[in-house]
Write a structure and sequence with these properties.
about 200 residues; alpha/beta; five-stranded mixed beta sheet; disordered N terminus
């Protein structure tokens, strides 16, 4: 007779079924725990942290770093899942429509996704996007900022505002509220511009 208490899988399914269940489930549980440990190790950048630096290449071949803007401009980074997806297009176009306000406030806008540089060029041309688009094919920039995935599947949609000293002053995450990424970024930039 089984020593398991009533209601346990061994009693419900029989010993052979329980052993088969354990055989099939254990590798999955191990994979899941490894993924959970990895996600815990990926530290998410918070307000007050120094922003990680990174560089990217312009179509001309010139290379730019975020640190190039230190002590000169506020930097707005918006991570988005994919070029041409409906919400991503709405978000990019919202940043485009407010671009003059960002420039007047002394900010530079940078969009980042895992799409290729060619995809970014087509995306920017099709929608007349005036700001930088960075190709993060290996997700190194996303990992450096600790941008989480939505439901563990979809790349996160997160906007950061970085002040002229390199400190993060806004972390705004919302997968579906495309317009709010723009309004929240502008709000913080205007607060930074007010005399202390």
């Amino acid at each position: 007779p089984s020593r398991e208490s009533p209601g346990t899988p061994a009693v419900q399914f029989g010993l052979a079924a329980w052993l088969e269940y354990r055989r099939l489930a254990t590798p999955f549980v191990r994979r899941l725990s490894i993924l959970q440990r990895r996600s815990l190790k990926m530290r998410q950048i918070q307000v007050g942290d120094q922003a990680p630096d990174f560089e990217w290449a312009l179509p001309t071949g010139e290379r730019i770093q975020v640190s190039d803007f230190l002590h000169k401009k506020v930097v707005v980074l918006f991570f988005y899942p994919r070029d041409e997806s409906p919400v991503c297009t709405l978000e990019a176009c919202a940043f485009r429509d407010a671009y003059d306000q960002f420039v007047e406030a002394g900010a530079v806008v940078i969009g980042i996704s895992g799409d290729s540089a060619e995809s970014h060029t087509e995306f920017a041309t099709r929608h007349a996007l005036p700001f930088y688009l960075v190709s993060d094919r290996d997700n190194l920039i996303r990992k450096a900022f600790g941008v989480p995935r939505t439901l563990g599947l979809l790349p996160g949609r997160v906007t950061y505002v970085i002040d002229t000293n390199g400190a993060v002053r806004l972390v705004f995450s919302a997968q579906l509220a495309a317009d709010r990424h723009v309004t929240e970024a502008l709000r913080v930039i205007r607060e930074l511009a007010r005399p202390a």
